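Researcher: Please predict.
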Amino acid sequence: MLTLAQVEAMAPDQSALAAASKLLKPSAWPLLARDAATSVVWGEAQGSGSAPYRLMFDPADRGHKCSCPSRKFPCKHVLAMMWQFAEHPDRFAVGEPEPWVAEWLSRRRPGSGRPAGKPADANAPAPSMAALDPAEVSPGDPASQAQAEAQAAQRRARAEAAREASVTAGLEALDVWIGDQLNTGLASFIQRAQTTCRTAAQRLMDVKAPGLAARLDALPGALLSRPEPLRPDFLLAELGRLHLISAAWRRREGLDQALVDDLRRSIGWSVRREDTLNDPTVPRWAGEWLVAGTRTVVQPDRLRRTETWLTTADPAAQAPRAAVLLDFTPVQVGAGEAIPAGELFNAELAFYPSSAPLRALVAVRGPALATRMAPQGGASLVEALAAHHARLAALPWLGDDLLVAGSGRIVEADGALWAVDPDTDRGLRLAVEQNRAASPLLGLTLSGLAGVWDGQILTLLSASTPHGPWFADS
């Protein structure tokens, strides 16, 4: 029997799984059925047009087909149908396969699409090569296989060009929207941020820019979570980053490839984990890595994002100082598994191509060397901030970044807590929700600290104190 874990494993990326989770209502499915032996499952999913999409799934080898134009395989419709089959098999009526299901089966497994005892029609025309996927062509026919692969490549190229054109039009509209907000006034925007951003985010979803849509959806919450005096500057900075992304997209032909990779991921192009790990050109760094801390955020799209922030155990090592591992799971299926804060382990990390490499995957992991350690030693807080500014210059829409410092103090001023450099007294304001948790650090001399910096607010993750390590999630 199919399990939900198997469905999740088949998803091409987390955004496809999130889209599938929105299609689980029975009202979206005019037809859900299976044959008596459960050798094939099929259905009809209501799309944006008048005619529903037709799809089918073969549990024997996980083969699938959908009439929708998605370039993801499996698409959200197939994932949603399999999801329902795993959790609600009673929704599927038992019956004979529809003719379009039988025809698909006969092409994949000759004879399986015919009723028992009925011979194959020797005069029946062969299926059109244009309708075949490369996986459905006989491996014994290299010419047909090559033709099918070429046609599939052409379809992918056309779909990619169509998406790029759609994104371009959507970003032009986004620039107009940003100008309208500035003309209307920031005070007015703050009052209506929730509805205004939701409408703009939906338009970005329609033009296939889900990364920017998620960024806009998260803007009201981030805006209202910070003290009122900081809100105008934060809003201007975030709208400025959105405009930079839009401007960079229009000039992408003249940008370095690493920055183009950053740009596409920010807009919403997904990169498969397997593709990154199998790419010999991606930067890799092996060594001892320390988990500075973790954060879990429930996104507006109902995905739970688990962030695992890593730093090199040796501040003098010739490697990136920081890395973040991201794991996305639907809220309905529970939190993903994160490496515990304070764990020290050997690993080789594969970094996504970027002009300021930060997001990474664990390519090879060794056993834990220690637990419950906090970062110690290294650059001062001012030097860590300067390194952040250098990364920001390379990637202007960088967003959250990890700051790791070898010394610091936590002080209280102006009704807030601040992480202060002991030599210069320069301070970074801590998130207001940390006032209580971080209060035990007041007055202590810290031999190390790590936190996520968003340009205005530092969310402290861990610190080394005279009494031992401190972790925000403790």
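Model: The longest helix spans residues 142-184.
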